[in-house]
Amino acid sequence: MSLFNKKWNELADIKDELAARDWFMGTSGNLSMKVNEQTFLVTASGKDKRKRTSEDFLLVDHKGVAAEETALKPSAETLLHCAVYGSTSAGCSLHVHTIANNVISELYAADGQIQFQHQELIKAFGMWGEDDILTIPIIPNYADIPKLAASFKEYIIADYGAVLIRNHGITVWGRTGLEAKKLLEACEFLFQYKVTLLKIKGGI
Ligand SMILES: CSCCC(=O)C(=O)COP(=O)(O)O
Ligand SMILES: [Zn+2]
Questions:
Q1: I need a labelling partner for 107 at 20 to 30 A (CA). Which of 66, 126, 169, 195 fits?
Q2: What number does the ligand 1 atom closest to the CA of 77 have?
């Protein structure tokens, strides 16, 4: 199997798993996977990401421009994926909108971040110390995608990480598809946990 087909199938499998969690409401969300140093696969814009078709992804270059003749449009948010691959050695970037990540992004917007400590799941981010703190930045949601991508890029400081976009969604990236998916699942667990806890305590 060619590298292209291998990456396509890996990304399609991740898309199916995230779809099974219902994380692509209203055609939201976009995913990408690096194929080589010059190109990456990204979801086509506006598609129902719960469906698996031969038109789910297209190959783009480092500027997010289609690298082959196609009628498909790359995700409207491709520049965020470009920012990830342009600044790191990451191999996969995942973006989803969920109720929990939107609620958390709004509740903690004024702080510009949300932190988690003494929660087992932060180990997904390599935080194994007793008192380690996981910080997830929260950035404003600009309609201007180049502006959003520039703001997002400031928080790309390692080959894996996560950034919340206020009232929009989360973008995570990792060295592999498996790592990116692990981080996304850990974030969503932590957000759902926090929302549930706040509800129980009467905080919201
Ligand atoms: C209807 S969701 C609005 C756009 C968005 O935020 C998103 O994640 C999906 O855009 P895409 O162009 O990647 O389909
Ligand atoms: Zn989005």
A1: 126
A2: 13
Of 63, 57, 68, the residue nearest 30 (C-alpha): 57
Report whether residue 185 contacts ligand 1, using a CB cutoff of 6 Å: no
ipTM of the complex: 0.99
Residues making up the binding site: 95, 97
- Of 148, 3, 181, the closest CA to residue 76 belongs to 148
53-71 pLDDT tens trace:
999 999 999 999 999 999 9
> 0.95 cut: is pTM over it?
yes
Q: Domain coordinates of the chain in residue numbers?
A: 3-201
Pick the CATH number of 3-201 from 3.40.47.10, 3.40.225.10, 1.25.40.20, 3.30.70.1230: 3.40.225.10
Residue with CA closest to ligand 1 atom 13? 75
